[in-house]
Specification:
By secondary structure, this protein is an alpha+beta fold. Helices cover 41% and strands 25% of the residues. It contains 8 helices and 11 strands. It has a 4-stranded antiparallel beta sheet with strand order 1-8-3-6. Strands 2-7-4-5 form a 4-stranded antiparallel beta sheet. The protein has a 3-stranded antiparallel beta sheet with strand order 9-11-10. α5 runs antiparallel to α6. The longest helix has 27 residues.
């Protein structure tokens, strides 16, 4: 498994053994569509996806859903909520059959563990992760700040191209998920993508996009 998250690099076998002994590390299997965390939950666990995929989404009182982020294998989620101890404002839902490794922050960061060799590196990693997640949420705000569908699409795709260092790339969403992420209607998104393709701005096939100069 490709370890995309620095937290996994910190969890070497000896550290995992120590954390499991302190009831600070455990693993759980989830079915497709099963909710890992609900909005309103107060949690102390950080989830790390070992297999499968998790969607972070928000649902308003009318049932309208907005996708905030897409958690792939090797990535973590719910860091800020686990560290701050405030009720969640989002749901974490499995997009497919998923295996998750949980780090119970309240148990791992007890004062009595402060002398352990793994304590300081783990704490520093958690802080960097929380900062990184805030940057990702800021990126979504930047994408949805644009008023037109085209502007939102182009902002999002440009950010993906910059991150990957290439004009041809895959995005982690299907059309409905991409529409939810950009907070636009799916039909409007599809129409705008076709217009942009016809105007020679980009090409696409499913979730693969190429931006044209």
């Amino acid at each position: 498994m490709k370890e995309k998250n620095p937290l996994l690099a910190q969890l070497q076998p000896s550290v995992r053994t120590a954390l499991k002994a302190k009831n600070a590390l455990f693993q759980q299997h989830f079915a497709k569509g099963e909710t890992v965390f609900h909005a309103g939950d107060t949690i102390s666990d950080i989830g790390i996806v070992l297999s499968g995929r998790v969607i972070i989404e928000s649902t308003d009182v009318r049932g309208s859903r907005t996708i905030l982020s897409h958690i792939e294998v090797g990535q973590a989620f719910a860091e800020s909520y686990a560290l701050c101890g405030v009720p969640m404002m989002v749901d974490a839902v499995c997009a497919q059959e998923t295996e998750i490794l949980f780090l119970r922050v309240s148990a791992a960061l007890r004062q009595e563990n402060g002398r352990e060799d793994w304590y300081l590196p783990l704490t520093q990693t958690l802080l960097r992760m929380a900062a990184g997640k805030n940057l990702a949420l800021s990126e979504r705000i930047f994408c949805t700040a644009a008023k037109s569908v085209r502007a939102r699409v182009f902002t999002y795709l440009s950010a993906q191209a910059t991150r990957r260092g290439t004009l041809s790339f895959f995005v982690p969403f299907n059309r409905q998920q991409m529409a939810d992420y950009l907070n636009v209607d799916r039909s409007a998104l599809s129409r705008e993508l076709c217009r942009m393709r016809d105007e020679g701005l980009l090409t696409f096939s499913k979730n693969r996009f190429t931006l044209l100069k």
